[in-house]
Every structure is written in structure tokens, then in C-alpha cells.
Specification:
The protein is of the alpha+beta class and 400 residues long. The protein contains 7 helices and 20 strands. It has a 5-stranded mixed barrel with strand order 1-2-3-5-4. The chain has a 5-stranded mixed beta barrel with strand order 6-7-8-10-9. A 5-stranded mixed β-barrel has the order 11-12-13-15-14. A hairpin with a 4-residue loop joins strand 12 and strand 13. It is elongated. It starts with a helix and ends with a helix.
């Protein structure tokens, strides 16, 4: 055996015993672990060992509140998304989009599933036209975002990251791309962190993603929850779009978390904006003592009376017996209509049941102020409206 053959044999044995020294460079999609060694501008640099370095955009490592989650010396695990041809550094995370050159670069990006940067140049049937490295590509409307985009024209001129989902070479390269695929990967990474903070009563920041008649959906960071219309405000809300817009940042409190069998949405999260507002009934005894005259708006009419909004989130009931100013009426519609502005007098307050009794009979103001019994009952919070039967009996006795 020659010295050269002997050396080759020994080196082969060394490679078997120490495989780490011959480890190949990670490929796109591989998970790598490294140590943060530098933070410069918009980039975080990671030492991956074996004279290899990675770079990740700083936005990739921020939480839902915009705070950087790592510091120099911290160890992180993250996926490889590409390689910077100029510096040789590995690109990490899901946000990187490469500037590719020519059809060869596009083919490589397709085969390795590397994100590429493109500019939206126009709207076409079923989607948008995108220019990538001088080539025209098509992005279906369903793949431009995670949520439905109503106005595709608003994206024209934008530079965005895409993943090539179809590549056909030839004289004219045929490309189909998706932005949604990248956004979903980013959301999945965020969701892991967000789910660790999910608990009833937790207060989180989110962004309104869509608005329906029954409420609004809010992205909490890769995880979505819903604010029912009744939880938007203490005040009356006709439609969520009256107080919210898509893209609006909001602060919400978690009311309920229910597990589901849907792997894409493993939990159903009920949220509230109202829970973070001051309850208008908290100071009701100070704001509206018995005998107070106030102005309100008739918002609802029932056979037994009319409901009057006297402040956002506070409705009072004018019983039918207090509508006619001593005159017998058969239905509240004989006296008032929804939308009417009326002057009313506070007769009683029940803070526990959130009820206020009102009268449109102006003579009742003096009676309420003059009666010490009424004031005492009011202060002790013992008055209530009673049952519907009590109200009917009271009405019958007055009409005898």
C-alpha cells in the first residue's frame, strides 16, 4: 500500500467517525440552529458553525407588538430560504425574496422553492400580472393574499415576494406564482408564539382582517379570533363597519377559547373590545339620580312601553302608563316613534339589572323629587321594574 493510498484510507475512516466535519451546506427548507452574533440595520446575522453564516430580516424575529425577541448570544432555530450569491450567506426565515436573473435563475428558484421578488404590473382576468426578472407571471386572485382582496388595482406597482408554483420553459417562459404560500408560512411561525399566550382574560393587540354583519375577525398574530357585534362597544352598533375598518389595529380581551376538529383552525376564539372600555353603568347613580330630567332618543318600541337611549350603552324604559301624561293610550306608537328626541324624567334605577325607569310625564319630576321614600329606595338600589304581570296590574289599576 502506497503512502497516498494509506492516507486516503485513514481519511475515509476519519470521515466516518467525525461526520460533522464533512456536513453539507443546508438546503432551502432545512431547519438550522445557530447563535445571533450581530444585529445591523434591518438584518440579524447568525453563526451557523463550520464557517457558515446566515442572515434573517429583523422583522422576522419581532413579536406581535413589534418587539425584537432575540439578542446577541441567543440561540435560534430557523428555516433556510435561500442563499445570497454575492456574499455566500444563507438567507433564513420566510421574508427573503431573491432578485433572480434570466430563465435559469427562475428555474432554480422554482426547483428550490426560493421566494422571488416581483412587481405587480396590472390586473387581469382572475388575478394579477407580475413581472419577475423581466418575465411576465400570473398570480391568481386567490393566491395574492390569505384574505380576499376586493380591490386588486390597489396592488399595482407594489413590489412583493412570491413563490413560483408553476414553471414551463421555452421561447416564452410560463410562470404561475403565489404570495399566499409565503404569508401562510409566516403565519404558522407566528401562530406558535401567539398560542403560547392564549388564555381567557389575556389582552392582546391585533389587526382587523374582515368585517361581517355579525362582527369582525381579528388577526392576533397567525391566529384569528372574532369580536361579536355585541362585544364591540357598550353603545348601540348598527353595523361593525360603523366603528371598524379592515387593517385597523385594535386591542382585544379573550373571552372564550373553544377547541375544534379543524386542523387549520384548531381553536375558536371569542374576543371583546367592549371589555376594555369603562362600563357606563359604573357611575349611573351619580350621573342620573332620581328626578333627573334628560334628553334621549327613542330606539325601540314594544306594546308595554318605549326604550329610550339616554347615553351610549344606556337605555331607559318608559312604561306605557308613563307615556300619556294622564291620558289612556292603547299602544306607545300613539305617542312616540323610533328616532324621536324626547325629554324624560328618571323614576328609578336598578344597577344590578341595568335598568332605568323613565317617564315622559313632566309632572312626575316634582313627584320624584318630593317623595323621600323614592329617594331612599333609589339610594339603597332596591327598586326594580317587577314582573310583566306587575306592570300590567299597575296599568289596570290606574285605568279603573
Amino acid at each position: 500500500m502506497t503512502d497516498q493510498e494509506d492516507f486516503a484510507s485513514l481519511f475515509g475512516e476519519f470521515e466516518k467517525e467525525h461526520p460533522a466535519t464533512t456536513q453539507q451546506e443546508p438546503k432551502v427548507g432545512d431547519k438550522v440552529r445557530g447563535t445571533v452574533v450581530s444585529i445591523q440595520g434591518d438584518s440579524v446575522f447568525v453563526d451557523l458553525g463550520a464557517k457558515s453564516e446566515g442572515m434573517v430580516e429583523i422583522e422576522e424575529l419581532k413579536d406581535a407588538d413589534g418587539n425584537l425577541t432575540v439578542g446577541i448570544g441567543d440561540s435560534i432555530e430557523i428555516a433556510v430560504s435561500g442563499k445570497d450569491e454575492d456574499t455566500g450567506a444563507l438567507l433564513l426565515g420566510t421574508r427573503h425574496a431573491r432578485h433572480v436573473r434570466g430563465s435559469a435563475g427562475l428555474r432554480q428558484a422554482y426547483e428550490e422553492q426560493i421566494p422571488v421578488e416581483g412587481r405587480v404590473t396590472g390586473v387581469t382576468k382572475g388575478g394579477v400580472e407580475v413581472t419577475i426578472s423581466g418575465e411576465r407571471a400570473f398570480c391568481p386572485a386567490s393566491q395574492i393574499d390569505i384574505h380576499y382582496v376586493d380591490d386588486l388595482e390597489s396592488l399595482v406597482g407594489e413590489k412583493l415576494a412570491f413563490r413560483i408554483t408553476k414553471y414551463e420553459g421555452g421561447r416564452h417562459v410560463n410562470l404561475v406564482v403565489s404570495r399566499r404560500a409565503l404569508l401562510e408560512e409566516e403565519q404558522q411561525a407566528l401562530a406558535v408564539e401567539t398560542r403560547a399566550r392564549l388564555e381567557v382574560g389575556a389582552v392582546l393587540n391585533g389587526t382587523v382582517t374582515s368585517i361581517k354583519e355579525f362582527g369582525a375577525f381579528v388577526d392576533l398574530g397567525g391566529v384569528e379570533g372574532m369580536v361579536h357585534i355585541s362585544e364591540l362597544s357598550f353603545g348601540r352598533v348598527e353595523h361593525p363597519k360603523d366603528i371598524l375598518t379592515v387593517g385597523q389595529p385594535v386591542e382585544v380581551s379573550i373571552l372564550r377559547i373553544e377547541k375544534t376538529d379543524n386542523p387549520k383552525h384548531p381553536e375558536r376564539i371569542a374576543l371583546s373590545i367592549r371589555a376594555l372600555e369603562k362600563d357606563p353603568w359604573q357611575d349611573i347613580l351619580v350621573e342620573y339620580p332620581v328626578g333627573t330630567q334628560l334628553q334621549g332618543t327613542v330606539v325601540r318600541i314594544q306594546p308595554f312601553g318605549a326604550f329610550v337611549e339616554i347615553a351610549p350603552g344606556i337605555d331607559g324604559l318608559v312604561h306605557i302608563s308613563e307615556l300619556g301624561a294622564g291620558r289612556r293610550i292603547n299602544h306607545p306608537q300613539e305617542v312616540v316613534s323610533v328616532g324621536d328626541k324626547v325629554q324624560a324624567t328618571v323614576l328609578n334605577v336598578d344597577t344590578e339589572k341595568h335598568r332605568i325607569g323613565l317617564s315622559l310625564d313632566t309632572e312626575r319630576k316634582g313627584k320624584a323629587e318630593a317623595s323621600p321614600d323614592v329617594a331612599v329606595e333609589y339610594k339603597q338600589q332596591k327598586q326594580s321594574f317587577g314582573t310583566l304581570g306587575d306592570l300590567l296590574r299597575e296599568s289596570m289599576e290606574k285605568n279603573k
